[in-house]
Amino acid sequence: MTTVAMSSAAADTAFRHQSSCLHQHHCPSGGLPLKPLPSVQQRCPQGSFHHLLIHQTPSAATAASSSPDRVFNFAAGPATLPENVLLKAQSELYNWNGCGMSGGATTQFAAVPLNLCSPDDVVDYVVTGSWGDKAFKEAAKYCKPKTIWSGKSEKYTKIPTFDALEQTPGAKYLHICANETIHGVEFKDYPKPAGESTLLIADMSSNFCSKPVDVTKFGVIYAGAQKNVGPSGVTIVIIRSDLIGNAQPITPVMLDYKIHADNNSLYNTPPCYGIYMCGLVFEDLIAQGGLSEVEKKNVKKGGILYDAIDGSKGFYRCPVEKSVRSLMNVPFTLAKPELEAEFIKEAAKEKMVQLKGTDRLAA
Ligand SMILES: Cc1ncc(COP(=O)(O)O)c(C=O)c1O
């Protein structure tokens, strides 16, 4: 099984591997200009507030140097790295070890139920692939999740029709994975929670910023940065403001949304470099014309790839139902499995690496 992952931020490098954000930017002159992204409060059309939290994993990096244009940084938080280390990183950034290099969303699998539920609350999960399944299993430690639909018996090639969903009355939230990275199924629209107060929660790790999204439909959207917006280690959480402040007492401090909101996403030492990279990608997305333009490019790129697969007279096959095929991750097989090794070898000659998919596709 082979997978092509498309980073929407890297419109021109569509066919490189999954975590390919780093290769398109250059660090200016070895310095690391910091523009930390604070917790942003935004008024939504319905009058509710959303908070944008940047979750951080500690790391170190700011600049000081012998060169005249760099400052001496005495901050108590992130410290200065040796200049030779920074220069080496700068030189290797574009193509680390020849593999084009570049987590955190997994922590949200626990943070969401911990912040939104009491241990006895029932919540609904639509399991459309292995990430949705992991989220469901983690939630079982902190509340009472129910899988109301699973695509496992059909090898995760489908998304249910929304009226087929038997939602649990009184469920605290309905959780979906908006794009299943491994199985290549993507929600093209979003289900409406049946209950008045039931929240819609989405893991958007692998299609965040690939298209416009009406955030007012959601209680929480979360996404690891490493697919479309930056290096791993930064996680973005968009939460409706009135949902903040109800975490279970056992919630670790780093998973409590109120701690992050109250501290402008700076409660712990921020991964400055990762946030800086996200800032560059956001600027680039705006320069491309914003997310509606990015979406057009993604539709075009996806079309080229799926047309090639469908037009190959069965030489290549995509198992995913056409109406829900992901514009981010395109899984395909070869009709003759013995040709797979040959395909991988020939692709590598064209500088396309990491195309071999995972055995989890056979789930
Ligand atoms: C859809 C989805 N959810 C969650 C995760 C887990 O993210 P992390 O590795 O940042 O914990 C991934 C990782 O690839 C993913 O693709």
Kindly describe this structure.
Keywords: Amino-acid biosynthesis, Aminotransferase, Pyridoxal phosphate, Serine biosynthesis, Transferase. GO terms for molecular function: O-phospho-L-serine:2-oxoglutarate aminotransferase activity; pyridoxal phosphate binding. Its EC number is 2.6.1.52. It comes from Sesamum angolense. This is phosphoserine transaminase. With about 375 residues, the protein is of the alpha/beta class. The chain contains 7 helices and 13 strands. The protein has helices spanning about 85-90, 105-115, 130-140, 255-260, 270-285, 290-310, 340-350, and strands spanning about 1-5, 40-45, 50-55, 120-125, 145-150, 175, 180, 185, 200-205, 220-225, 235-240, 315, 330-335. The strands form 3 sheets. Strands 2-3-11-10-9-6-4-5 form an 8-stranded mixed β-sheet. Strand 2 (about 40-45) and strand 3 form a beta hairpin. The longest helix has 20 residues, at about 290-310. The site of pyridoxal-5'-phosphate (PLP) has 12 residues, from helix 2.
* Overall pLDDT score: 82
Strand order within the widest beta sheet: 2-3-11-10-9-6-4-5
Largest β-sheet summary: 8 strands, mixed
Radius of gyration: 21 Å
Shape: globular
Uncertain regions: pLDDT < 50 for 5+ in a row?
Answer: 6-47, 56-64
User: What's the N-to-C terminus distance?
Assistant: 12 Å
Q: Please indicate the percent range of residues in DSSP E strands (runs of 2 or more).
A: 15-25%
Helix content: 10-25%
Count the beta strands: 13
**Number of helices, counting only DSSP H or I runs of 4 residues or more:** 7
Bound molecules: pyridoxal-5'-phosphate
- Category by helix and strand content: alpha/beta
Order of helices and strands: EEEHHEHEEEEEEEHHHEEH
